[in-house]
């Protein structure tokens, strides 16, 4: 399964991308994460549905110094063109 996500709140300058990368690696997910110009963080991830559910829960919590106000999560279906391992895009 493949998903797109977008996280808003205090998510830039608090290690959120590194947090997402670490959590994705722990779950064996493929994909990427980046900072958006409007202050949000977005990305795509792919893997088994149960692992993606765990990733979603971790993103909703965020890192210790962050504050997640809203998490958009959208299923994209199945595909296999995402980076492996999960990476931070600049």
From TrEMBL:
<dbReference type="InterPro" id="IPR001792">
    <property type="entry name" value="Acylphosphatase-like_dom"/>
</dbReference>
<dbReference type="InterPro" id="IPR020456">
    <property type="entry name" value="Acylphosphatase"/>
</dbReference>
<feature type="domain" description="Acylphosphatase-like">
    <location>
        <begin position="2"/>
        <end position="90"/>
    </location>
</feature>
<dbReference type="Pfam" id="PF00708">
    <property type="entry name" value="Acylphosphatase"/>
</dbReference>
<keyword id="KW-0378">Hydrolase</keyword>
<feature type="active site">
    <location>
        <position position="35"/>
    </location>
</feature>
<dbReference type="InterPro" id="IPR017968">
    <property type="entry name" value="Acylphosphatase_CS"/>
</dbReference>
<protein>
    <recommendedName>
        <fullName>Acylphosphatase</fullName>
        <ecNumber>3.6.1.7</ecNumber>
    </recommendedName>
</protein>
<dbReference type="InterPro" id="IPR036046">
    <property type="entry name" value="Acylphosphatase-like_dom_sf"/>
</dbReference>
<feature type="active site">
    <location>
        <position position="17"/>
    </location>
</feature>
<comment type="similarity">
    <text>Belongs to the acylphosphatase family.</text>
</comment>
């Amino acid at each position: 399964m493949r998903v797109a996500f977008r996280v808003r709140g205090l998510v830039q300058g608090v290690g959120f991308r590194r947090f997402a990368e670490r959590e994705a690696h722990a779950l064996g997910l493929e994909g990427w994460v980046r900072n958006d110009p409007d202050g949000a963080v977005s990305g795509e991830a792919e893997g088994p549905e149960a692992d993606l559910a765990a990733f979603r829960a971790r993103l909703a919590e965020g890192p210790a110094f962050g504050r997640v106000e809203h998490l958009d999560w959208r299923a994209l279906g199945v595909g296999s063109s995402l980076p492996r391992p999960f990476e931070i895009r600049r």
